[in-house]
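To: structure desk
From: M.T.
Subject: fold request, one chain
Message: Could you run this one when you get a chance? Sequence is below, nothing fancy, just the single chain.
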Amino acid sequence: MRKITADAIEALRMGRNFKRGNTEVKVWNTRVKFTTRSDAVIRRRGLFLHGSLIAEMTQQILYLHTHGCMTALTKERLNGIPSVNIVQKNKVWFLNGEEWDGGHIKLLYSDRFGIGKNFKEEQWEEMPHHLSFTWKEVS
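Reply: Done. Structure tokens follow.
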């Protein structure tokens, strides 16, 4: 793993802003309205490559997206994240053992639900009710 990747992933995990070369980590807060009618502020952390958000972490959720840039550098940055394992076989990417087209995907990375478990949108809807929420940006 390259030093820039290791440093960026450490900043992402620790919730610190970071910028070096084409890689940046930004941290911001979002107000969340839970279905129980209570609000909370969630600390969001994003990993950017060439200005595109390729990974975002919240408390128990990891979002990945290549924005159509499925390069060795994108793969290297994403593979730096614990619980993410991307391999390429015959020009096809596999994320944690499942074929992935690089599109937006959600992963749970808490020990409670299984590290790095991939969830398709229809499976996501079947998650426990207390995880249901909507995003509202904090101004």
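Reply (cont.): Residues 3-137 form one domain. Let me know if you need anything else for the meeting.
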